[in-house]
Structure formats: C-alpha cells, structure tokens
Amino acid sequence: MAVELDIVNSLECMIFGNSRATDSRLEKIRQQDALLLVAYDGDTQVGFKLGYVVKGTDSFFSWLGGVHKNYRRQGIAQALLDFQEDHVKSMGISTIYFTSYDRFPEMIQLGLKNKYTQVKSELDGNEIKYWFEKQLL
C-alpha cells in the first residue's frame, strides 16, 4: 500500500491529537520497503501500524502506530503487531525495533510482553525515549 500523507495524518490525529508525519519523511519511507497496516471496525479506521526496512540494513523500524482510545484492550494492537512481525519475517528481515516514550506505557508493555528487549534509553527533552528490539530469525 502506498504510504499517503493524508491517511497517516488522519490516523495520527485520531489517536494522538496531532501528527508528526511530514511529506518529506513519508517520501523517504516510500523509497524503502514500507508496510502500512490499518485496523477497521466496519468502515471506521480504529488503529494502524507503519514501519519500513531501514535502507542498507537487515532491520525493520516500526515507526508509528496506535489504537483509538475507544478500541483499546480488544487485541487490536496485538493483532497489528503479529501481522507486522509475520510479514517482516517473510521478507527475510532478522531484526525489528521500535522507540517509545514514558507517556506511552501501554506500548512499552506490549513490546515487553512480545519479547522485545530494551537496548537503549536517553533523555529526549523532558522525557525518556526507549529503544526496543527483537530478533525474528
């Protein structure tokens, strides 16, 4: 699926209230092996996961994702993660990673539950940014 700015912006705004995606960032992602997954309830978008193969590596970066607050705790994030991991494995990619912040404890817990290992943390502004990775192959 082509990664379109309006789709990503709409999903980010629905979940987070704002959007960090820019056309220039998405253009870089479009030039790599990108994967955009969208979860629906009927015709309503309720969650998403966007990631890409890091050029020149054997790694996949799960960059953005989330589930609308009214649809959390229903297994949607887990289903998106499972599909993403299966797809990335089928591509022959050995490592998948993501970053998160203190303000997203549910994402951190989802990663830990799925055997992601925290490999780094650092102060980013007024909060801590964490890096998690998992070996797939």
Describe the structure.
This protein has about 140 residues and is of the alpha+beta class. The chain has one domain: Aminopeptidase (3-Layer(aba) Sandwich), CATH 3.40.630.30. About 30% of the residues lie in helices and about 35% in strands. It is built from 4 helices and 6 strands; from the N terminus they run ααβββαβαββ. The protein has a 6-stranded mixed beta sheet with strand order 1-2-3-4-6-5, with helices on both faces. A hairpin with a 2-residue loop joins strand 5 and strand 6. The radius of gyration is 14 Å and the shape is globular. The mean pLDDT is about 90.
Question: Brief overview, please?
Answer:
This protein is α+β, with helices and mostly antiparallel strands and 137 residues long. It has one domain (5-135): 3-Layer(aba) Sandwich (Aminopeptidase). It is built from 4 helices and 6 strands; from the N terminus they run H-H-E-E-E-H-E-H-E-E.
Low-confidence stretches: none
**What is the percent of helical residues?**
25-40%
For the record, the count of structural domains works out to 1
What is the helix tally?
Answer: 4
Describe the structure using short key phrases.
137 residues, alpha+beta, Aminopeptidase, 6 strands
